[in-house]
């Protein structure tokens, strides 16, 4: 492993690379990580705008959206003063594409693509990924999949409108949604996206297994690396199932097969089984990196070792293992045999236990610390707070009888936004934290704090009242809540939620402004601005292609904060302070 | 928040609601406990000059405690859920009152047995979107769909069941209070999903007989 690191180190000393090989077709994991970040942030803006349009329609149904009148009928109907009214078909497309983009083109590229790429080699002391060309290919196939997905907005009939879950038979025949090519392109884009993630996953697994620096045993790896490693294994095993299901769906639509169509002998529930067999591990693919990053940040900024390192690693392994046998909890009222529902309820209750362990261990980490409320720390705490709510609300729907009532209501929408949209807090934490290593400059901390406070308040303002709506029976994915007599009395909450969501969206300008300003004009960063232990901070800033000047040797675990052996309150993993420490490190 | 559950007029809804309340109290207590501890730690253990963090890698006893307690609570919740679930979804009580609901984009087709007393024959009496039932009577629903997946949802009865094309799914409910209850589709079924709804009319026994005499019997003859 050290040989390959040296080889890559030598590679870095080649002649100055051209613009194209440096910025476009880069083989450097750090640049590929940055590429994923920029694409992910662009998609975050698109997905966010789609969400704002959905919220507008729910608060002020069928009233013109300012400035939307430029889009032609039948996608948008003209209103006064250049406004545009969203018709039902477009509304369905908006929430379908919002979810698809946020999951596959924002959270996955940033949490897995950016931080997986940027951090794994740096944190394990490797010079690069095991397969740099495969890494480049992974980014470019992913970028093409994004182009294909966005192109579906411009085909006749508009983009997919069958929900991000694409339930057959709605998605399996064009006549049911009126969407022909939009849905085809959705399928093709997700297949390409799967290929991209698969290439990344193979690379991550190989790199972690083979390229750890001398002394970096598995149980000296930072939890961020553990989480990305486990995520990569889940991706490797889950994505082929989605790809197979998507291929079958495409055949049903284009080649006349009937995998999911009962008139030809097919079975609509087969899609749901395959989709959720992928889809539930997918939830953990999204959330595990956030958990790993949060663990590292909480320890660093509490100046204290993570509470129960082994329990944290094993609870992630337990979550990953259990994630394969809980998919049926999405299908309690689907018509699946109710006895199976009972079995899936049991497994779902079990998976809540390792999640609870994580929250309690995070609390344990804070206990007795010397807590620095930096911007990354605030966002990491925000993630814990949201995950707590999202985890607890999951218990309601795990109970099969309660799920009868709350299934397909806004209670579910509240739940998964607290979990999946809550990941955005870990995402921001990670961007603020690693920005100095990624872009050699510091982000502005005051603007960061303003961004945190606004995001935290209006995130909760947008998503918490959705629980109330759900308890009142408000269905999800409806175009106009005022069509229902039992929902109409709750309408003020819909307006409140929309205002919160609009302000939440506007608050992100503090982030974007800070990000791009700091990129060019931020204060130059030190090598280890947070006084952290992990290896990426031992690499020079800017880290060259090949990362480390000499391959680091690892003497201890990543969480030796406030160790009695040194006077500073941090002790880097590769710092040699004599023979005694190597034996003591866990 | 608790008052927001719609009024329950079914025979089994109170079991769902009490499970809901139980989970609500457990999760609310957990939320308060964790949040208070977190805020307290953030204040008490904020960075202060001259104080160093405790050098501590964890505590196995504590970790066992906070693994076992949630596990025990969740196992108990599971077992409490099993019987209610079995009662609602795994069994259909014997009854002589059966209707067929066929979902299609974007309507509920309701059918009552005709003179032959059987569903699915030519003399079935059909209605669009309006279901009429007597109180205190187990209603067995034969749920079908002709195109995409729909979901037959009656919030006031805590009733929800997907209708899947290619299948006939048996479900049941029993209403306790006369009234008119909204009956929306709860599963995305296309551009007309929003607004796909009907009404469940629950009548007293006398009123139902009157309705049936006017609407079911003449057509059957």
Tell me what you see in this structure.
The complex is a heterodimer of chains A (586) and B (221). Chain A is mainly α and 586 residues long. Chain A has helices spanning 2-11, 19-24, 29-59, 88-124, 132-151, 174-177, 181-210, 223-254, 268-302, 309-322, 338-366, 375-398, 400-406, 410-421, 423-439, 445-471, 491-521, 579-584; strands spanning 77-78, 84-85. A two-stranded antiparallel sheet of chain A has the order 1-2. In chain A, helix 12 (375-398) packs antiparallel against helix 14 and helix 16 runs antiparallel to helix 17 (491-521). The radius of gyration of chain A is 24 Å and the shape is globular. Residues 1-13 and 581-586 of chain A have low confidence and may be disordered. With 221 residues, chain B is α+β, with helices and mostly antiparallel strands. In chain B, the strands form 3 sheets. Chain B has a 5-stranded mixed sheet with strand order 3-2-1-5-8, with no helix packed on it. In chain B, helix 1 runs antiparallel to helix 2. The model of chain B has no long low-confidence stretch (mean pLDDT 93).
Q: What is the strand arrangement across the widest sheet of chain B?
A: 3-2-1-5-8
Q: If helices are DSSP runs of H or I spanning 4 or more residues, what is the number of helices of chain B?
A: 4
Reported by name, the CATH topology of the largest domain in chain A is Cytochrome C Oxidase, Chain A
Structural class of chain A: mainly alpha
Mean pLDDT of chain A: 94
Question: How would you describe the shape of chain A?
Answer: globular
Q: In angstroms, what separates the terminal alpha carbons of chain A?
A: 22 Å
Q: Main sheet of chain B, how many strands, which sense, barrel? A: 5 strands, mixed
The string of secondary-structure elements of chain A, in order, is HHHEEHHHHHHHHHHHHHHH
Radius of gyration of chain A from CA coordinates = 24 Å
The low-pLDDT segments of chain A are 1-13, 581-586
User: Count of helices of chain A?
Assistant: 18
Radius of gyration of chain B: 25 Å
Low-pLDDT runs of 5+ residues of chain B are none
By CATH's scheme, which homologous superfamily of the largest domain in chain A applies?
A: Cytochrome c oxidase-like, subunit I domain
Q: Mean pLDDT of chain B, nearest integer? A: 93
The appropriate CATH architecture of the largest domain in chain A is: Up-down Bundle
Give the helix proportion of chain A (percent range). 55-70%
- Indicate the CATH class of the largest domain in chain A: Mainly Alpha
């Amino acid at each position: 492993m050290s040989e390959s690191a040296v080889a890559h180190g030598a590679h870095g000393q080649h002649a100055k690379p051209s613009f194209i090989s440096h910025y476009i077709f880069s083989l450097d994991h750090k640049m590929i990580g940055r590429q994923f970040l920029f694409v992910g942030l662009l998609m975050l803006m698109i997905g966010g705008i789609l969400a704002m349009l959905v919220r507008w329609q729910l608060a002020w149904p069928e009233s013109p959206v300012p400035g939307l009148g430029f889009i032609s009928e039948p996608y948008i109907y003209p209103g006064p003063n250049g406004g545009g009214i969203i018709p039902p078909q477009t509304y369905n497309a908006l929430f379908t594409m919002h979810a698809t983009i946020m999951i596959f083109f924002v959270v996955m590229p940033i949490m897995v693509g950016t931080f997986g790429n940027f951090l794994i080699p740096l944190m394990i002391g490797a010079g690069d990924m095991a397969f740099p060309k495969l890494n480049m290919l992974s980014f470019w196939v992913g970028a093409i999949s994004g182009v294909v997905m966005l192109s579906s907005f411009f085909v006749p009939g508009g983009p997919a409108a069958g929900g991000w879950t694409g339930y057959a038979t709605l998605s399996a025949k064009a006549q049911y949604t009126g969407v022909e090519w939009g849905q085809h392109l959705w399928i093709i884009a997700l297949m390409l996206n799967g290929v991209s993630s698969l290439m990344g996953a193979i690379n991550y697994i190989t790199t972690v297994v083979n390229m750890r620096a001398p002394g970096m045993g598995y149980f000296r790896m930072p939890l961020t690396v553990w989480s990305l490693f486990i995520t990569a294994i889940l991706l490797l095993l889950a994505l082929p199932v989605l790809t197979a299901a998507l291929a079958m769906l495409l055949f049903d639509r284009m080649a006349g097969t009937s995998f999911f169509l009962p008139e030809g002998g097919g079975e609509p529930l087969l899609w749901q089984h395959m989709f959720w067999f992928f889809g539930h591990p997918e939830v953990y693919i999204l959330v595990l990196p956030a958990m790993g990053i949060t663990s590292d940040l909480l320890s660093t900024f509490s100046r204290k070792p993570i509470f129960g390192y082994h329990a944290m690693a094993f609870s992630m392994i337990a979550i990953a293992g259990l994630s394969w046998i809980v998919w049926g909890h999405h299908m309690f009222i689907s018509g699946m045999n109710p006895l199976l529902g009972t079995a899936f309820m049991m497994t779902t209750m079990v998976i809540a236990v390792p999640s609870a362990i994580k929250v309690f261990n995070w609390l344990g980490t804070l206990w007795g610390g010397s807590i620095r409320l930096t911007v990354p720390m605030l966002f990491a705490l925000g993630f814990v707070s949201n995950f707590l709510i999202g985890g607890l609300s999951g218990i309601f729907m795990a109970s099969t009888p309660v799920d009868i009532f709350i299934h397909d209501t806004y209670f579910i929408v509240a739940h998964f936004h607290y979990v999946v949209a809550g990941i955005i807090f870990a995402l921001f934490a990670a961007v603020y934290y690693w920005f100095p290593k990624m872009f050699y400059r510091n982000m502005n901390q005051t603007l960061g704090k303003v961004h945190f406070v606004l995001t935290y308040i209006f995130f909760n303002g947008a998503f918490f009242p959705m629980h109330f709506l759900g308890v009142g029976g408000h269905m999800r994915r409806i175009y106009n809540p005022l069509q229902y007599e039992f929902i109409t009395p709750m309408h003020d909450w819909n307006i409140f939620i929309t205002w919160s969501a609009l302000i939440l969206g506007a608050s992100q300008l503090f982030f974007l402004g800070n990000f791009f300003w700091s990129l060019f004009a931020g204060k130059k960063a030190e090598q280890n601005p947070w006084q952290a232990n992990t290896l990426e901070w031992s690499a020079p800033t800017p880290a060259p292609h090949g990362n480390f000047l000499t391959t680091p040797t690892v003497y201890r675990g990543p969480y030796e904060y406030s160790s009695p052996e040194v006077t500073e309150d941090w002790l880097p993993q590769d710092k040699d302070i004599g023979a005694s420490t190597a034996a003591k490190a866990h | 928040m608790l008052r927001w559950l719609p009024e329950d007029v079914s025979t089994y809804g109170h079991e769902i609601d009490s499970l809901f309340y139980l989970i609500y109290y457990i999760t609310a207590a957990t939320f308060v406990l964790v949040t208070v501890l977190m805020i307290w730690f953030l204040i008490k253990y904020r960075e202060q000059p001259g104080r160093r963090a405790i050098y501590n890698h964890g505590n196995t006893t504590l970790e066992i405690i906070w693994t076992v307690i949630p596990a025990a609570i969740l196992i108990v919740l599971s077992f409490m859920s099993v019987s209610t679930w079995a009662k609602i979804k795994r069994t259909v009580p014997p009854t002589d009152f059966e209707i067929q609901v066929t979902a299609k984009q974007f309507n509920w087709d309701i059918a009552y047995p005709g003179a032959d007393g059987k569903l699915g024959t030519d003399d079935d009496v059909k209605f669009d979107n309006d279901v009429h039932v007597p109180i205190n009577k187990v209603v067995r629903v034969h749920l079908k769909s002709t195109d995409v997946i729909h979901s037959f949802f009656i919030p006031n009865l805590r009733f929800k069941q997907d209708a899947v094309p290619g299948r006939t799914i048996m479900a049941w409910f029993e209403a306790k209070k006369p009234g008119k209850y909204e009956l929306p589709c709860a599963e995305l079924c296309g551009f007309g999903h929003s607004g796909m709804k009907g009404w469940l009319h629950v009548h007293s026994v006398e009123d139902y007989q009157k309705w049936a005499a006017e609407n079911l019997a003449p057509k059957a003859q």
